Hints:
2 strands, two-stranded antiparallel sheet, mainly alpha
Amino acid sequence: MPNKPPVFRPAHIPSPEQRRRAYDRERGSAHARGYGSKWEKARAAFLAEHPLCRTCEEHGVREPAVIVDHIQPHRGDPGLFWAQSNWQSLCKPCHDRKTRGGG
Length: 103
């Protein structure tokens, strides 16, 4: 099988991997973004009340939810972060699809 030829990238332009690492450093840890023990308790209570994936249910499928998703990204706004009206229970595939822009 032939090898893929090298791609020229000027030294001053970061690679996709370098950009991802820089983004992760800038956004801070999960705990720094508000996902600490208080969130874990609220998350567990919400999943106990809403145990099925909302997206799957809309398609007639009963799939257990494992993630509490913020419907509208909170971007550090504590009011939006803690508003349960902005939360939805999702399974991991539905959450991944939503966060990467696939629905």
